[in-house]
Design brief:
By secondary structure, this protein is an all-alpha fold. It is 51% helix and 0% strand. It is built from 7 helices and no strands.
């Protein structure tokens, strides 16, 4: 399955026909984050999968929840503010390394400006 997901990610939008095979894997913690990468690579043709991405089974780690919220926003556009809020909170949380959240937060452009003061030098 890992090989199929890798190939589908590399093929990007051309892999849309495999959506019926890969989409159910969002519920499998072994593959869910890889499937998210595949859906991101597929682009606008996979926009309708955003709600499934938000509900994806991910390993019990807060970083994965932030990443799936960000991915759902990237896949479908429009957001209720969940991804921006989760990433902003992570950047401000002293217990969380801001490096991963900063990278994802940068996609929000000026909407993420409120969190710029916490971004470490050199980012």
């Amino acid at each position: 399955m890992g090989t199929l997901l890798h190939v589908a990610e590399e093929w990007g939008p051309h892999a849309l026909p495999v959506l019926p095979v890969v989409l159910p894997l969002l519920k499998d913690t072994r593959y869910s984050l890889d499937v998210v990468d595949v859906l991101l690579a597929m682009g606008p043709g996979a926009a309708w999968t955003a709600s499934a991405v938000r509900d994806a089974a991910v390993l019990d780690h807060p970083g994965n929840h932030r990443r799936t919220a960000w991915a759902a926003w990237r896949i479908a556009g429009g957001d209720d503010g969940t991804a921006l809020r989760l990433l902003g909170e992570a950047v401000h949380d002293e217990q969380v390394s801001p490096y991963g959240p900063v990278l994802l937060l940068s996609d929000f452009g000026t909407a993420a400006a409120a969190h710029a003061g916490r971004v470490p030098a050199g980012q």
